[in-house]
TrEMBL record:
It comes from Aureimonas endophytica. Residues 6-95 form the Pyrroline-5-carboxylate reductase catalytic N-terminal domain. NADP(+) binds at residues 10-16. Its EC number is 1.5.1.2. SUPFAM superfamilies: 6-phosphogluconate dehydrogenase C-terminal domain-like (SSF48179), NAD(P)-binding Rossmann-fold domains (SSF51735). Residues 158-261 form the Pyrroline-5-carboxylate reductase dimerisation domain. This is Pyrroline-5-carboxylate reductase. It is found in: Cytoplasm. GO terms for cellular component: cytoplasm. NADPH binds at residue 58. Signal peptide: none annotated. The gene is proC. Pfam families: F420_oxidored, P5CR_dimer. Keywords: Amino-acid biosynthesis, Cytoplasm, NADP, Oxidoreductase, Proline biosynthesis. Its main location: cytoplasm.
Length: 265
């Protein structure tokens, strides 16, 4: 779907805002001439996307946009003063409630999303929640915008977005943590670091494709490996025995708690 509406990204010079802007333009979903990015830094430091309008004035961005994406840090939101009444406002910020966004921007139509770092390679899994006033056509727009960044899926409750800060937002970092732990173990067993790094990245990136297949089921894949009663079963059971599931649960809970704290900072 080509998005006809004009899009503005406040914080469009930042890490995620730049990734969304690039993905939207590269996929053809958004015409760069209808895209505006704002930030406080010197305009020369903004992402170099041809034909995109750059500004240090958020009011100018709002004026030029039908859809305003909020991509500043949660603690920076308190300094964003805009009147976006009548516009669709889409937040990617962790921890900031839709009610607070309406209160501060005047917008009735508010969508909250949590993309992730894989947006940089157009592979983000992005859940989104639309407040009741959001129209069906604006919901379709949000779906198209985040499909340009990977996959997108509507959730029925705002609390699901707060939960997803850990699972889908931060989760994109978890495979790298697994790879790092495997590399450290391999190196202590005498394998060359360069080989270990290549092997771990290859295993994690390659094996993730098993889950990307249509109809793939994580629990079934694990159970099949356990039922095989070979080396993989030994590894999986030892990891579980040492608290793998509890460690993941603690990580997800810590991410949500941090989001709540950051939004109050
Ligand atoms: N990084 C990630 O993987 C994910 C991030 N998020 C959320 O996305 C948001 C952005 O994160 P990220 O891109 O990583 O952070 P960055 O710090 O890279 O980007 C935030 C940008 O906002 C700009 N900014 C701050 N205040 C204002 C303002 N008043 N007006 C205009 N621009 C402003 C900053 O630029 P300048 O200083 O020039 O103004 C900065 O470039 C956060 O709320 C985060 O919770 C959500 C999911 C994943
Ligand atoms: O690390 C962070 O704070 C951001 C928010 C969700 C994922 N990344």
């Amino acid at each position: 779907m080509t998005i006809e509406q004009r899009i503005g990204i406040i914080g469009g010079n930042g890490w995620l805002g730049s990734a969304i802007a690039s993905a939207a333009v590269d996929s053809g979903a958004v015409d760069p001439a209808r895209l505006t990015l704002s930030g406080r830094s010197d305009l020369s430091t903004f992402p170099a996307i041809p034909d995109v309008h750059r500004t240090n004035l958020n009011a100018e961005l709002v004026e030029r946009s039908d859809v305003v994406i909020l991509s500043v840090g949660p603690a920076q939101f308190a300094d964003v003063r805009i009147d976006a009444a009548g516009k669709l406002v889409v937040s990617v910020m962790a921890g900031i409630t839709a009610a607070r966004i309406t209160e501060r921007t005047g917008a009735a139509e508010v969508v909250r999303t949590i993309p992730n770092a894989a947006a940089a390679v157009r592979r983000s899994f992005t859940p989104w929640y639309a407040t009741p006033p959001v129209s069906a056509s604006n919901k379709a727009l949000v779906q198209a915008l985040f499909e340009a960044c990977g996959e997108a899926s509507e959730v029925p409750e705002e609390s699901h977005i707060d939960y997803c800060v850990g699972m889908t937002g931060s989760g994109a970092a978890f495979p790298a943590l697994l790879a790092e732990a495997m590399i450290a173990h391999a190196v202590t067993h005498g394998l060359p670091r360069a080989f270990a790094e290549r092997a771990a990245a290859g295993v994690v990136a390659g094996a993730s494709q098993l889950l990307a297949r249509p109809g793939a089921d994580a629990a079934r894949i694990v159970q099949e490996m356990i039922d095989y009663r070979g080396t993989t079963a030994a590894a999986l059971l030892a990891m579980r025995e040492r608290g793998f599931d509890e460690a993941v649960a603690a990580g997800l809970a810590a991410a949500s708690a941090k989001a709540a704290a950051m939004s109050k900072a």
